[in-house]
Design a protein that fits this description.
Blueprint (H helix, E strand, L loop, with lengths): L1 H16 L5 E8 L10 H16 L7 E8 L6 H10 L6 E3 L4 H14 L3 E3 L17 E3 L4 H15 L3 E8 L5 H12 L4 E8 L6 H5 L7 E5 L2 H13 L8 E6 L18 H8 L2 E6 L5 H16 L13 H22 L7 H8 L2 E5 L2 E5 L8 E9 L4 E9 L4 E4 L29 H60 L1
Parallel strand pairs: 1-2, 1-3, 3-4, 4-5, 6-7, 6-8, 8-9, 9-10
Antiparallel strand pairs: 10-13, 11-12, 13-14, 14-15
Helix pairs in contact: 2-10, 2-11, 3-4, 5-6, 8-9, 11-12
Length: about 500
């Protein structure tokens, strides 16, 4: 028996010290088969498989054998039902998705109960930020909407704007624009914020939208590109694009389904649209020029063509979901590798999740930073029209969420963001009060001015009083002489009569 125990020791130690660690990992990925979604199976599955192959050839993770099963996600209850069905047998080790908020909520609650890590490029609404209870095992590999809202908060502080109108298209299904501007609304609740919503599929009345602008400085829009064009044309007709208002549109997910700043349609309104869009700025995710990303992008386009997805208006660029689900596989592999080196296994979902949070790693498009709440920090670009004649846009500034800083690029022009009749933001003035403080120095200055005013008033009063007295004295003296002369004449007259 003692010999058997001795033989077992090297085996047990070998299972811990094996490098690279070996493990079979069951992955359940929820992606809709409906290609109208930007995160459909046809678009995203190739990215997940690309990451799977990349991990297989990476020396650190080559021992991980990922077995990926894709389930349909209908953005209602499909993912939850599929997860419940799977729970009767072997539960997955990792869940990817769902993206849609309402569907993700149910899945993440169950997964947190069963200690299964969930990584999603969706579930971006503000409510999922509460990770203390039911969403404790959710890691968001794409920047939540509130991260984008931080970009607007920073701009409002920089340019001293105090009011805004949030205009959004609400589809009552995914509600991407509603949740997107919800973050802006809550972060800037201390300002004067108004909202205007219209339903997808219903006629848009741009003039009705613009009726809400008289007491606002900034308009932030989230809607389809054609609707943004209608509003900007209406604003141009009202002469609202001459510098007295600032317009923004939100380009969600790096996809042209939402406002992409495109004014040209080849119709009779192109000239007016080009002039109107000179006042429109676009906030979008920071794009990368990493060579590896270019190769990845080409492979994704090839994969989409292979499945016969030819009528794809949004496949020109890799969107946020495609990139995010790829990076989700990498992040999980890094965290699992660390956990296993420390003696944990794939069953320790909470431990693996904690190792995914508060870390930075290299994703397919560049560095990915996850904050201590399990949410990706967002890097965003601000685009503006820099050539009004050609109607071309450039990135004029970048906002880095990890440290909350702006990077102003050479094309940036502060006048473009300063409303007519308003001064440009002033630099902070150093305190030159010699330790007295601003309030004390102000009090002294005001006191000195008031004192001087009193002295000047007293001087002119005294001078005027003196002149009055002198005039009165001369008048009285003159009157006395006249009175005396009259008395003398009267006396003489009386004597003559006698």
């Amino acid at each position: 028996m003692r010999l058997l125990a001795a033989l077992c020791v090297p085996v047990l130690l070998g299972s811990v010290l094996t490098y690279p660690p070996t493990e079979d990992i069951d992955v359940l990925a929820f992606l809709p088969r409906n290609d109208s979604y930007l995160f459909s199976y046809s678009r995203v599955a190739p990215a997940v498989r690309y990451a799977q192959e990349r991990l297989r050839t990476d020396g650190r993770f080559s021992g991980f054998r990922f077995h990926i099963r894709f389930e349909d996600s209908d953005c209602v209850n499909g993912a939850m039902f599929a997860l419940v069905d799977r729970s009767c047998g072997a539960r997955p080790d990792l869940i990817l998705g769902p993206v849609c908020e309402y569907e993700a909520a149910a899945v993440v609650r169950l997964a947190s109960r069963w200690d299964i890590p969930v990584i999603s490029a969706g579930a971006l609404a503000a409510g999922f930020g509460r990770k203390d209870t039911e969403f404790s095992l959710l890691t968001r590999i794409a920047p939540p909407y509130v991260k984008m809202a931080e970009t607007f908060t920073a701009m409002f502080e920089r340019f001293r704007w105090g009011s805004a109108l949030l205009v959004y298209e609400d589809d009552k299904d995914e509600r991407n624009c509603y949740f997107s501007l919800e973050g802006v609304y809550h972060l800037m609740a201390h300002l004067s914020i108004k909202t205007y919503a219209f339903s997808r599929g219903e006629p848009l009345d741009p003039d009705d939208v613009l009726q809400n602008t008289p007491d606002t400085e900034v308009m932030i829009m989230c809607m389809a590109a054609d609707n943004i064009r209608e509003i900007m044309l209406a604003a141009h007709r009202r002469q609202m694009t001459s510098g007295n208002y600032v317009f923004f549109n939100v380009d969600l997910f790096n996809a042209s389904s939402y406002g992409n700043g495109s004014w040209k349609r080849g119709d009779k309104h192109d000239s007016d649209a080009r002039q109107a869009y000179a006042s429109l700025n676009t906030v979008t995710l920071l794009r990368t020029v990493k060579p590896e990303f270019e190769n990845f992008s080409m492979e994704m386009k090839k994969s989409i063509k292979k499945v016969g997805f030819h009528d794809c208006k949004d496949c020109g660029d890799v969107n946020m979901f495609v990139e995010g689900f790829h990076d989700a596989m990498l992040l999980y592999a890094v965290a699992l590798h660390e956990a296993m080196k420390s003696g944990y296994s794939k069953e320790n979902g909470s431990e693996i999740t904690s190792r995914m949070w508060n870390r930075t790693f290299e994703g397919i498009a560049g560095q990915v930073s996850i904050d201590d709440n399990g949410d990706r920090n967002g890097d965003f670009s601000l685009m503006a029209m820099t050539n009004a004649e050609a109607g071309t846009y450039e990135v004029v500034a970048n906002y880095f969420g990890v440290n909350g800083t702006f990077q102003l690029l050479p094309a940036f022009n502060s006048d473009h963001f300063t409303q007519r009749g308003k001064s440009t933001p002033q630099a902070e003035t150093p305190d030159t009060s010699c330790g007295l403080g601003v309030s004390a120095l102000t009090g002294i200055t005001v006191g000195a001015v008031l004192g001087a005013a009193v002295l000047i008033t007293f001087y002119f009063f005294r001078k005027n009083y003196r002149i009055t007295i002198e005039r009165r004295t001369r008048t009285e003296a003159c009157g006395t002489r006249k009175h005396r002369q009259l008395r003398e004449d009267s006396i003489r007259s009386n004597l003559s009569a006698a």
